[in-house]
Design goal:
By secondary structure, the chain is mostly helical. It has four helices and no strands.
């Protein structure tokens, strides 16, 4: 939480780019936060903003969670449909057993 009179550090774009480039090369955010005395949260925020802008190589970053509606392909919909059909058949077989 922010307290009254608290000051915030401002970092240059060059410094941020240097840190992000080191991250991209495989250096851990924990190591960088200790070496440069920056919070890991700040580094992660820079990373997220850069990733959102699409300027950083995404080869080491993986999206988490479900695909967004706009990212689904026709094959994804077909696969989901087949899964639902199998599940409905399973439920119908369970009801008939009773």
């Amino acid at each position: 939480m922010v307290s009254k009179g608290q000051t915030f550090n401002k970092y240059s774009k060059e410094f941020k780019n240097e840190i992000l480039e080191l991250l991209n090369q495989g250096v851990s955010s924990y190591y960088l936060s200790k070496k440069y005395n920056i919070s890991r949260g700040t580094i992660c925020t820079w990373q997220a903003k850069r990733r959102k802008q699409g300027n950083l190589d995404n080869d080491i970053f993986h999206k988490r969670g479900r695909l967004k509606e706009k990212d689904l392909t026709k094959e994804d919909y077909k696969e989901r449909y087949e899964i639902l059909k199998k599940y409905q058949a399973f439920l119908k077989a369970q009801r008939e057993k009773k």
